[in-house]
Design goal:
single chain, alpha+beta, two-stranded antiparallel sheet, 42% helix
Length: 158
């Protein structure tokens, strides 16, 4: 898979396991920022005096390399070094939707909309090929119950 190839190449180049980030702590901060904070806010955070002082404290007290992410540009440059989801590009289709309200001319009003989507087959292939999920996947049917006695069965599409 993409992830396994990327991991193998990093090991061959003797990169740390958190590459392209310098440490586990830096990886965790980057993951949290990428999931919870907008682009402009990331830049603002990294420019705060308190964050700069914390970086200096970390360097002096723990003797580790300085946090290598000091701006939004550097942050997203590191994110871009992570393995990309192959075939997971967004596709935009323009769709004309005709409504049930009539305009002044007596014709139904219509609107041009953008429909953003991804290829679901490639999404599933990417998820199945991601080693982070290998322990959580099961390909056999199972019975699930909402009570400990096993009397109230949960029926689900998945």
């Amino acid at each position: 898979t993409t992830f396994e190839r990327w991991d193998r190449e990093n090991k061959e180049q003797h990169q740390n396991q958190w590459y392209p980030f310098g440490s586990k702590d830096e990886w965790e901060i980057a993951a949290w920022l990428a999931q919870n904070v907008g682009h402009n806010k990331i830049d603002e955070l990294l420019k705060l005096e308190m964050v700069s002082q914390m970086l200096v404290f970390i360097i002096r007290s723990i003797c580790i390399d300085m946090l290598t992410v000091t701006s939004k540009y550097m942050f997203f440059k590191k994110i871009d070094q992570l393995p990309r989801r192959s075939g997971m590009k967004w596709i935009c289709d323009n769709v004309t939707v005709v409504g049930n309200i009539l305009g002044e001319d007596g014709k139904a009003l219509s609107e041009e909309l953008e429909l953003w989507r991804r290829n679901p087959v490639k999404c599933v292939r990417e998820l199945i090929g991601n080693p982070a999920f290998c322990e959580a996947m099961s390909y056999t049917p199972e019975r699930v119950f909402s009570d400990e006695e096993g009397k109230s069965r949960v029926i689900d599409e998945m």
